[in-house]
Amino acid sequence: MGVMFSSKQEFSLTQILSKEEIHQRVEELAGEIESFYKEDKPLLVGVLKGSFVFLSDLLRCLPSDYMLDFMAVSSYSGDSSSGAVEIRLDLREDIFQRNVLLVEDVVDTGLTLSYIYRTLLARSPFSLRVVTLLLKVDSYRADVPIDFVGFKIPSRFVVGYGMDIDEKFRGLPYIASIEPSIKAPKE
Ligand code: IMP
Could you report the per-residue pLDDT of 32-68, keeping only the tens digit for each? Predict the structure, then answer.
């Protein structure tokens, strides 16, 4: 669910996943991915910008060599139910008859994922699967199967570990939920 905060807003952050918890789960996910694909390594497709931190940690936990590519899409603004998403940066790799693993940082309603998934499926990959670090289970309403999930989280806006709000907080090494801080009225 989208949350709009004004740029002059002050925030209060509550850590929900520590650096250590994230690292341990990313290592486990790498193990799951490696043993799932065995010899048929997929092309890893990072969805920019948010997934770049997760993808770079994931890649360093994977024992084999994997090829990388990136996509960027515009996120919807305002009413998310339209699902109108636009490709801003497309793949350089041809994915016809290849195994492809889409790498997402956070899936909320799944509308963005669903658009990317349908776009890539139309290019006839051999297989198309999805890994997301975070899944907001209660908001998810797409029909795309998510094959690897790092953490299921409540439907709250989160930042850190690559995820931002208005380009802020991407560099935090942990993941925090964020809320506008409410100032006590002056007496
Ligand atoms: P969805 O289409 O509702 O699944 O949302 C997809 C996109 O919205 C994600 O790829 C993120 O770019 C952004 N997004 C959704 N929830 C969050 C969040 O909690 N923090 C940061 N970005 C988010």
Answer: 999 999 889 999 999 999 999 999 999 999 998 999 9
Phi and psi for 169 in degrees, rounded to 5?
A: 75, 10
Using most ligand atoms within 8 A of CB, pick from 49, 89, 106 the residue to mutate for ligand 1.
106
Name the catalytic one among 94, 108, 164, 166. 108
* Residue 41 CB-density burial (10 A; 0-12 exposed, 13-18 middle, 19+ buried): middle
Mode of pairing for the β-strands spanning 175-180 and 158-159:
antiparallel
107 lines ligand 1 (CB under 6 A): yes
Structure tokens at 97: 């008859």
Q: What are the backbone angles phi and psi of residue 175, rounded to the nearest 5°?
A: -115, 135
Distances in Å between the Cα of 117 and the Cα atoms of 50, 59, 92, 131 are 17, 21, 16, 12
Residue type at 89? L
Q: Which two tokens stand for residue 121?
A: 């499926």
Q: How far apart are CA 1 and CA 74, in angstroms?
A: 16
Q: The whole model's pTM is what?
A: 0.91
Angle 52-61/19-37 helices, nearest 10 degrees?
A: 60
Q: Which residue has the tokens 């899936």?
A: 107
